[in-house]
Design a protein that fits this description.
By secondary structure, this protein is mainly α. It has 2 domains: about 80 residues, no CATH class; about 150 residues, no CATH class. Helix content is about 70%, strand content about 0%. It is built from 8 helices and no strands.
Length: about 290
């Protein structure tokens, strides 16, 4: 199955479906990082600009400062220039630590407490469960139903009645997966209690049924229409399925966003002098 939609596809489709969402999110995060760097640079340069703007029109003078005459104007200008120098020196002295802290924030892009809600990878998983997987299962059902009218299928049906049982099993499995996938995705999207557990159960069932379908094709279909590419087709189905299961199950188990979103606002009691038991159990997946 595909790493994103779970459909039974070839190598090219697998690489495209695996690469495009990751590539899109990667450049999306880079764009946000560049925007934050730009904002930080502009904020650092605006300190001196604000001070200079205040010196353009001092109180009691209707013209520019450089055109004003008198000791008061000169004293105001010198005081402001000294203030600018002091600001620049303080920025240089504390600049390294400030930039290190800001770049640490750029790595995460969001504070840990803000990693909450159906966004980021969690939104992609919800789209996967509610749209992509049901659409893929529907396509498999329609393809199986269409094969009933083919001439080759009628000939193969004469050779073995097991082919009919295989197609009926495929239709039933795909219909069940589409229904359960949509239900699990809807529970995640609406932030229902137990939604993460339901999604994990779906991933386990999906992987198990994938191996069952592969076994049926291996022991029922291939003896009838065996070819040199039969086992390579099975491998193309199983490897993406394992990756699909591993990535999303790990994400649901270790994501801080998933934990913050579906914790129902219940805070763990913290004993003075001790850290919470679940404090270090989540990674920076968003």
């Amino acid at each position: 199955m595909c790493i994103i939609c779970g459909s039974q596809c070839g190598v090219a489709e697998f690489l495209i479906s695996m690469g495009l969402p990751f590539l899109g999110l990667y450049f999306y995060r880079i764009r946000d990082s560049l925007r934050k760097i730009k904002n930080i640079i502009l904020r650092r340069g605006s300190v001196a600009e604000e001070i200079l703007n205040k010196t353009i029109k001092p109180s009691g003078c209707g013209e520019l400062l450089k055109d004003c005459r008198g000791i008061s104007a000169q004293s105001i200008e010198s005081e402001n220039l000294e203030l600018i120098k002091v600001k620049s020196r303080s920025n240089e002295s504390t600049g390294n630590s400030t930039w290190i802290n800001k770049f640490r924030k750029l790595i995460n892009l969001e504070k840990k407490g803000e990693l909450k809600g159906v966004r980021g990878w969690l939104l992609l998983l919800c789209l996967n469960l509610t749209i992509f997987i049901p659409a893929s299962c529907f396509y498999e059902v329609m393809s199986t139903l269409y094969s009933f009218n083919s001439f080759i299928y009628q000939i193969m049906l004469i050779v073995s009645n097991q082919l009919l049982l295989h197609n009926i099993a495929i239709i039933a499995i795909m219909g069940f997966l589409a229904t359960l996938s949509f239900y699990a995705g809807l529970q995640l999207w609406e932030v229902k209690p137990g939604a993460v557990k339901i999604a994990k159960i779906f991933l386990i069932i999906q992987l198990s049924l994938t191996f069952i379908v592969a076994a049926i094709r291996l022991f029922i279909i291939f003896p009838i229409v065996a070819s040199e590419h039969s086992f390579s087709v099975i491998i193309k189905i199983l490897i993406p399925s394992l990756l699909h299961f591993s990535l999303w199950y790990l994400y649901l188990s270790k994501s801080r966003r998933v934990h913050n979103t579906y914790s129902n606002g219940e805070r763990e009691k913290i004993i003075p002098g001790q850290l919470p038991a679940k404090l270090t159990g989540y990674t920076e997946f968003t």
